[in-house]
Amino acid sequence: MSLDVFLALLVFFFVSSVTPGPNNFMLLASGVNYGFIRTIPHMLGIAAGFASLLLAVGFGLGALLTAYPQLNLVLKIAGGAYLLYLAWRIAMSRSTGSQGATGAARPMTFFQAAAFQWVNPKAWVMAVTAMAIYTNPQAPFVSILLVALAFTLVNFPSVSVWAGFGVALRGFLADPVRLKWFNIVMGIALAATLWPMLR
Questions:
Q1: Cα angle vertex 24, ends 70, 58, to 5°?
Q2: DSSP characters for the chain?
Q3: What pTM, to 2 d.p., does this model score?
Q4: Closest Cα partner for 165 from 15, 30, 47?
Q5: pLDDT reported for residue 48
Q6: Shortest CA distance to 155 belongs to which of 187, 119, 126?
Q7: In the prediction, which pLDDT does 44 show?
Q8: Tens digit of pLDDT for each residue in 2-35?
Q9: CB-hemisphere CA count at 13 Å for 68?
Q10: Range with the largest mean pLDDT of 10-14, 86-90, 149-153, 158-162
Q11: pLDDT per residue as tens digits for the range 161-175
Q12: Which residues of 21-54 are buried (b: 16+ CB within 10 A; e: fewer)?
């Protein structure tokens, strides 16, 4: 992979990672409700889960989905159902989940965030697109690894911005009424990310 192609790949992943989508709406809400430090496992889980998805698509899963389109439908249904469940949880959250808070509110764990990438519609589109455009058939193994490396380099800084925005809003949203409406709006925004998948 030439340097200019690798740089184009970095730009692709930066734009894809920093623009609104399911992960970023959840990170914004998590930053507000739990703070930056408690959101780090969520961010790391996104990076690890998506890197594993990229590798799987690159090493044959993409071809399997092309050969069996019904698997796409299964993934869409499972991903959509889980996304709606997460949207409901965010919309119903009513506290900032600070250390002294009571109740079971907690941020998404590393493993939950990693697993979510496998049912996240935006993640699948990104993975299939990246592997189709940026891998080299003459050097498939190396180019697949380079695609995964490019993603790893830009994802964490990109998604950190959204968690950081959430932290910046914590003071404003310390009012329970504002927090309630913020979480409802974030839940609706997360559910709305399903729209492109349903068309």
A1: 45
A2: --HHHHHHHHHHHHHHHHSSSHHHHHHHHHHHHH-SGGGHHHHHHHHHHHHHHHHHIIIIIHHHHHH-HHHHHHHHHHHHHHHHHHHHHHHH--S---TT--SS--PPPHHHHHHHTTT-HHHHHHHHHHHHHH--TTSHHHHHHHHHHHHHHHHHHHHHHHHHHHHHHTTGGGSHHHHHHHHHHHHHHHHHTTHHHH-
A3: 0.80
A4: 30
A5: 94
A6: 126
A7: 95
A8: 788 888 888 888 888 888 888 998 999 999 989 9
A9: 7
A10: 158-162
A11: 999 999 999 888 888
A12: bbbbbbbbbbbbbbbbebbbbbbbbbbbbbbbbb
Judged against a pLDDT cut of 50, whether residue 137 lies above it is answered with yes
At which residue do the structure tokens 């069996």 appear?
68
Q: Per the structure block, which two tokens stand in for 113?
A: 């965030």
Domain chopping of the chain, boundaries: 3-12+27-94+109-198
